Here is the input.
Amino acid sequence: MRDDSCSVFEGASTVNLIFSILITFGIVISYLPQYHRIYVKRTSEGLSTNFLLLGSCSSIFTLTNIILVSSKARYCCSSGALNTFNCINSQLNLIQIGLQCTCAILILVFVLILTKDSLKQDKHEYGRIVTVAKFVSLHGIVSLVQIVVGLWSSKSVLYSIASINGLLSTLLTVIKYVPQIYTTYLLKHPGTLSIGMMCIQTPGGFVFTATLFFTKGSHWSSWVSYLVAASLQGLLLILCIYYEYFHNKGMDAELSERAAVERIIAENLHEQEIETGNDEEAAPLL
Here is the structure.
């Protein structure tokens, strides 16, 4: 027997499907400049710890939301109420947001791995990043529990959990850019923060929001955070471009970043000398 509630997913747009597929590839490509910048610089200098924390948690909230919201479409697919084209279209948002969440968390992972033993990395800052990673891991576990509870509960409970996650994602998206904008303003240079990534993601964020909005059966809580994110990221991009290319012809940004990295290297070398001296004093005489 046909489930009439599945009709909301029918009549998917071919144009929207094409744009969604292109955006899916664009999501991965947009993060590559940031990964490369971390690999080259081997430091988190310029990246706000709170930005890494809130950005990762915001992505997890959004992923939890879309997994729950898209469950109805998956039911319609499994019951045979939707054809293959409409089924694929109904799950593209889940694929896109899942990739975006993975890519966002990979920034934190690459910072943890690539800066661990680097002389350019502030050790105290690295300790805070490790704490952030533990908190994000805990959040991931809590989200898995929410998903299980939501999928095994009534429709009202499922959408309540999804809406709460969507609202929290929007809230964290707003909050996460505040410490990063403030950090960039204080440093007067982007540091490890990639301008290339933001140049791709800012316009892409508005297009992504549009595709989420026009997807059949979409829920406002799944796209509103991306609209807010694109707007605030645009503000951060303008700030970074100003310091990098226009503020005193870009010289201040380069010199400021170089001075900060040299200070970190000097501090790390000094600590190594102290540790080496302590080890020599503690060594037993033969």
